[in-house]
Amino acid sequence: MQEELLWTERYTDFLADQPSRPARIVYQRDRARVIHSASFRRLQAKTQIFGLNESDFYRTRLTHSMEVAQIGSGLVEQLITVGDGQAYMDWLPSFYLIEAICLAHDLGHPPYGHGGEVALNYMMRHYGGFEGNAQTLRIMANLGEYTPQNGIDLSRRATLGVLKYPAFYNDITRQNSAYQLQLQEPTVSDFRTLEMRRWNPPKSSVYCEEKKVYDWVMSAFCEADRKLFTELVDSESDLGFKRTRYKAFDTTIMELADDIAYGIHDLEDAVAMKMVPKVLWEKEVMQHPDFLANPLWDDEMTEMLFSHSSKGRKHAISKMVGIMVESIYVTENTVFEHPLLRYQARLGEAEMRILERLKQFVYTHVITLPEVKSMEYKGQLIVLELFKSLRANPAALLPRSTYAKYQNAESTVAQQRVISDYIAGMTNTYAARMYAKLFMPTQGSIFDRM
Fold first, then answer.
1. Tens-digit pLDDT profile for residues 109-140
2. What is the 3-state secondary structure (H, E, C) of the chain?
3. Residue 220 phi/psi, 5° resolution?
4. How far apart are the first and last CA of the chain?
5. In degrees rounded to 5, what are phi and psi of residue 40?
6. Rounded to whole angstroms, how far apart are CA atoms 372 and 338?
């Protein structure tokens, strides 16, 4: 019972030396706090893959998050079904908890997707940087509206579950000598000449501003577990950034749910939009060596997926998701002492290979299409120009409430973080409206309240 109360503790409870509440209450409220937050609602107007004006059918970042939560619950249910007598059962997250983690995992997603993330990172490169996962923790621990100073204030375990990369942004960039030299380059005045990919942020879940909350979460583990869990190792990143190697038990479930949603549900949008022809699917998935060695479905699935019936397509997608979910199992990483770090969720080897193939297929034939990348690029320019103008004219352009935070900020770094938070919280629609109001001569009015 005492161990459970350690993980249901909220940061405000910790600061006030108040007792924690039972899990059945806390995790349900974690989920409710995420759902009712402004950051979660704004995901309905933030890009998943396709532009918001393409169609009402295609997924947004909100519907993606909801699908991740549903798949996450399905993964937990499957582990319960096959887990009779297994030691991990005592540490399996409840449905409320895993849904709270899954629903929260993209709260820090900025407008225009990864393009907006890169643009904000460039503008914040000398002020602590920007990274979507770190922004998620910032919303949970600082910006969210549920408490005056501590954000949405989720439980310790829910906060741990969202930490995909438990390392500080500054610690990662500090160890990259090439990036440090890059930071000395003069600021680009014409953003159209900026080589965006050079400013991809490192994979990090923590800004230095959230150190106190991060330390509170980590204090539940012994020193050896903390050191290993937060250790930075070389990665395959072409920018040379290191990243953390390990994830917590709940995070592994959430990440599998996220991968399934990305590789399969986003595939559905691509097929429905006729961006992926049947012949390409057969060549690069059905006839791929990995699939031939692990045939998880037959040609009937292809016929359903590419049928003219939306019901057939939906049935195929549902079956694919079911195949992945039913393959989940739990391993133990014995280098860790604590069960929440020792237990790890995995998909079956064959299922994981095929899921990676599906993710690569979506990335190659959808994400990186010039038609998609051009819209991402357009969004980047909007974010860059907005930031440039707000930085130069904060008193005139920032909303009064935001400008009050800017004035009260204790340093230049803190002031720039206020601007970054403001833009990161924008939807695609809001950012486009503000850009049009500021820079399009025929757009905007004093009655057009932002």
1. 999 988 999 999 999 999 999 999 999 999 99
2. CHHHHHHHCEHHHHHHCCCCCCHHHHHHHHHHHHHCCHHHHHHHHCECCCCCCCCCCCCEHHHHHHHHHHHHHHHHHHHHHHCCCCHHHHHCCCHHHHHHHHHHCCCCCCCCHHHHHHHHHHHCCCCCCCCHHHHHHHHHHHHCCCCCCCCCCCEHHHHHHHCCCCCEHHHHHHCCHHHHHHCCCCCCCCHHHCCHHHHCCCCCCECHHHHHHHHHHHCCCCHHHHHHHCCEECCCCCCCCCEECCCCHHHHHHHHHHHHHHHHHHHHHHHHCCCCCHHHHHHHHHCCHHHHHCCCCCHHHHHHHCCCCHHHHHHHHHHHHHHHHCCCEEEECCCCCCHHHHEEEECCHHHHHHHHHHHHHHHHHHHCCHHHHHHHHHHHHHHHHHHHHHHHCHHHHCCHHHHHHHHHCCCHHHHHHHHHHHHHCCCHHHHHHHHHHHHCCCCCCCCCCC
3. -75, -15
4. 49
5. -70, -45
6. 43
CA distance 109 to 10: 24
What is the structure's pLDDT at 443? 63
Q: 168 forms bridges with which residues in the sheet? A: 206
Alpha carbons 53 and 427: distance in angstroms, whole number:
13
Q: How many residues does the chain have?
A: 450
The predicted structure's pLDDT at residue 275: 83
Place 245 in a pLDDT band, splitting at 50, 70 and 90. Answer: very high
Q: List Cα–Cα distances, 371 to 269, 365, 377, in angstroms.
A: 15, 11, 10
Per-residue pLDDT band for 276 (boundaries 50, 70, 90) equals: confident
Q: Tell whether pTM > 0.90.
A: yes
CA angle 152, 156, 160 (to 5 degrees): 95
